Amino acid sequence: MIDLRSDTVTRPTPQMREAMLTAPVGDDVYAEDPSITELERYGAELLGHEASLFCVSGSLANLLGVWLSSEPGTEVLCDVRAHIVRAEMGAHAVLHGVTTRTWTSSDGVADVDTICALISDRTNPYLVATAAVEIENTHNFGGGTVWSLPQVGAVAQACHERGVRLHLDGARLGNACAETGATLAQYAGLADTATLCLSKGLGAPVGTLLAGSAADIERARVQRKRLGGGWRQAGMLAAAGMYALRHHLDRLGDDHVAARAFAAEVAKKAPRAVGHVPTNIVVVDTGALGAATVCAAAQAAGVVVSALDAHTIRAVTHLDVTEAECVQAGAVIADILSAQASTAA
Ligand SMILES: *Cc1c(COP(=O)(O)O)cnc(C)c1O
Q1: DSSP-assigned beta bridge partners for residue 136
Q2: Where are the beta strands (DSSP E) in 56-186?
Q3: In whole angstroms, how far apart are CA 209 and each of 199, 235, 265?
C-alpha cells in the first residue's frame, strides 16, 4: 500500500529508534527529564521564543496556545477551514469557553484587511471581544498553502496595534520555510505563540512544540498538567522529536518535489483535476465520480488517500514514500479519473 492519507502516518526510522532507546530520562513533572528539557530548549531557540513546551499533540499545543491568548467569553478569529475549528472537536469552546468567528478564503490565506474587518474591540459592550487571531502555516485544509513572511508580518502588526494576540498553528511550519527560505524563528517570532508538529513531515511518532514567552510557557505547563498532559519518563519520545528536528527538517522540500511529481502524473490524464501544488499536500478534484468512489477505487489499486469533502481528495507526501511511489500513485489516480471521463464521453 502507498499511504498518502496524511504525513502523520510515518513510522520512526531505525536511527530515530536508536536515539529513543539511548535517551536519558527522568520524571518531567519534577522537571527532571533531560531529553525533554533539551528538546524544549532547542525548540525555543529554533522557534525564536524564550521557551517551548513539549505537548502530546498539535491539538493540545493549539488548545494551550489559544488559551494563553484568550479568556472565557472572548473569541478567536480564524479561517473557516482552520484545524482549530474543524478538527479539534470543539475543544476551545468545550474546555476553555472560547468562541470562534471565521473568515472565508479560497485556500486558507487571507489578507490583513479581511482579518482586521472582523476584529471587535473590548470597549464595545454589545459584541464578543476579539482576544486573538489564529493563522495556519502551511494551511492544511486549504491545500498546504504557504503564508509568506510579509503576509504574516502584516497580520502580526495589525493584531498588535489593536491589542489582539496572534497564535500561529505551525503544524507544518517547516514546509512553509522550505518554500520561502524564511526560518522557523522568523515566522514563529512574529506570533505571541506558535506550534511546530514533530509528528507530521518530520517523522517523529508523537509530539508538538508550543513556543512563547517564558511566563506564558510556565502558565501553559500548569494548564497542560491540569488537562492530564504532564509527562513522566517521556524523554524517549522527546529524543525522537530531537532527532526529527536535527535530521528531517532539511528534507521537507523533497516531499514537495514528490507531491508535484504526483500531481504531474495525475495531470497527464486528468489535467483539470489538479492545480498548483504549494507544498506536500495535493488536492484532487474528482469531478462527477465523487471522492468516496475514487478513494475506494484507489485503495483497491494499492493507494490510500483521504476525502476532503464530497468532491475532492487529498494526497499528502512524507518521509515514508519515495518520489517513485508518488508517481506510481499519481498514475493510479489518473487512470481512475480518466476511465470515468471516457465512460462519460
Ligand atoms: C495535524 C495538525 C494539527 C495537530 O494535530 P494532532 O493530530 O492533534 O497532532 C494541528 N494543526 C494542523 C494544521 C494540522 O494539520
Answers
A1: 169
A2: 75-79, 99-103, 130-136, 165-169
A3: 10, 14, 35
Ligand 1 and 138: CB distance under 6 A = no
pTM equals 0.97
Cis amide bond preceding 138, omega within 30: yes
Query: Which ligand 1 atom sits closest to the C-alpha of 56?
Result: 9
Per-residue confidence (pLDDT) for residue 91, from 0 to 100: 98
- List Cβ neighbours of 124 (8 Å cut-off, separation of 6 or more): none
Residues in the chain: 345
Spatial strand order of the sheet with 281-285 comes to 281-285, 312-316, 306-307
Give, as one character, the DSSP assignment of residue 169.
E
Range 15-52 burial, b when 16+ CB lie within 10 A, else e:
ebbebbeebebbebeeeebebbbbbbebbbebbbbebb
Whether residue 145 has its Cβ less than 6 Å from ligand 1: no
Residues in CB range of 94: below 8 A, 6 or more apart: none
Q: pLDDT per residue over 197-230, tens digit each?
A: 999 999 999 999 999 999 999 999 999 999 999 9
Cβ neighbours of 308 (radius 10 Å): 18
Query: How many Å apart are CA 330 and CA 152, to the nearest integer?
Result: 33
Measured in Å, residue 208 CA sits from the centre of ligand 1 at 9
